[in-house]
Write a structure and sequence with these properties.
The chain is mainly alpha-helical and 396 residues long. The protein is built from 14 helices and no strands.
Length: 396
């Protein structure tokens, strides 16, 4: 890989701490919580909805994958629009599209229409999450970016702590129409909160780039690493509930709760470690924790092992994601922060989408266990790439 790693800047330990928790940062965090809560409630229930409509494992993978690929295709447009039309326009537009598409799910009676609305939802998700990450980056002092992004992501993790379990519980007691309406209302709350944020004026945030492109080159190393880390997500969300049912292992709701708690725990300290010691102190332990969790899921003899895997996975990903995101945006020019976030989240989407579609095929032909064996190998590739790059860039 010819793209150099971003050189880490020594922390300014003598400087006074800049303030993170402003009014606007609190609002973007709360907005992030509600949109993620609505999204997380659909994550484990969409496969059940596909089954109700007559779909199999292959179609479940395609439904999950088509969403992430549409988000992926939307992100470059979101990145450029953030710099040309402003943060407010892109964020509110993305949230509105998400609300309308999810609220329409309850009216769907065929897989064909579900595919169409998943594409629309993916566009809204691509715009809103690219914008929210960029807005948070604007609001966080540069000297505390790792810590601040950890706090910002913490609100998404709070949603993860309740969303999947709440969604699965409601799916067993109410209709899908009512479930998806609740998810849309949560998105609407996020839209209202985001309308109260004082956004930086567009002309003070950006200048037009001279050419239209699809990525920010300074963000490529952490984004490529993220891609291999997030490939397992496609199999985790879509197939783990079905895998545990097949093996007769209860406790999938508890899995998501433990996973989210571990994410929150790691985010309280991993960002500060990144700010003071850099990505070297975070990537190795975080990625190894994820790899071990996936090996345990491939084995999965009991609920206890399921819970241990949830904790290790959450601990590792909670440390890696904000550190890699801070790394991705830290050296991008001021008018390329949006595109750096778009590049970062595009890698996330691409990993999840490829994982979901390919794991659907793996599950169909080789069973669910093959998903987690393959996922562990994907994380191993990320680890090998990282230490190869570090070896070639001693100053990174």
């Amino acid at each position: 890989m010819s793209t150099p790693l971003v050189k880490e800047t020594p922390p300014q330990l003598s400087a006074p701490k800049a303030r993170i928790w402003t009014r606007d940062f609190t609002l973007i965090c709360m907005s992030n919580f509600f949109i993620f809560l609505g999204f997380q409630m659909t994550l484990p229930t969409i496969p059940l909805f596909v089954e109700q409509l007559g779909g199999n494992d292959q179609l479940i993978g395609l439904v999950v994958g088509i969403f992430t690929f549409s988000a992926l295709l939307a992100r470059p447009f979101a990145g450029h629009s953030l710099e040309s039309k402003g943060r407010r326009f892109v964020y509110l537009l993305g949230l509105a599209i998400f609300v309308l598409s999810v609220g329409s799910y309850g009216l769907i009676t065929s897989l064909l229409f579900l595919f169409g609305f998943r594409i629309i939802q993916g566009i809204g998700w691509g715009f809103s999450t690219t914008a929210s990450g960029t807005i948070a980056t604007d609001l966080i002092p540069a000297s505390r970016r790792g810590e601040g992004m950890g706090y910002f992501g913490l609100f998404g993790n709070l949603a993860l702590a309740f969303g999947p379990s709440l969604g699965l519980t409601l799916a067993g007691t109410i209709s899908f129409t009512k479930l998806f309406s609740i998810c849309a209302i949560l998105g609407l709350v996020a839209l209202i909160l985001s309308s109260r944020i004082h956004y930086k004026k567009r002309e003070t945030v950006q200048k037009h780039t001279q050419k239209w492109d699809f990525y920010e080159k300074t963000a490529l190393p952490p984004s490529i690493l993220l891609f291999f880390i997030t490939v397992p997500f496609g199999g985790m969300a879509a197939f783990l509930p079905l895998y545990t049912v097949q093996k007769g292992i209860p406790g999938i709701e508890v899995y998501f709760l433990i996973f989210a708690i571990a994410l929150m725990v790691s985010r309280t300290f991993a960002g500060r470690i990144y700010d003071t010691k850099g990505h070297r102190a975070v990537f190795g332990p975080g990625s190894l924790s994820i790899a071990l969790a996936l090996v345990l899921l491939a084995w999965l003899p009991s609920s206890l092992v399921l819970y241990v895997a949830a904790f290790l996975y959450g601990l590792g990903f909670g440390a890696l994601q904000p550190a890699l995101q801070a790394w991705a945006v830290q050296s991008a020019p001021g008018n390329r922060k949006g595109m750096a976030n778009a590049t970062f989240f595009s890698s996330f989407d691409l990993g999840v989408g490829i994982g979901a579609i390919s794991f659907g095929q793996l599950a169909y032909f080789f069973g669910y266990q093959s998903i987690y064996i393959t996922s562990a190998l994907s994380v191993l590739i990320s680890i090998l790439l990282y230490f190869t790059w570090i070896g070639k860039n001693k100053s990174a």
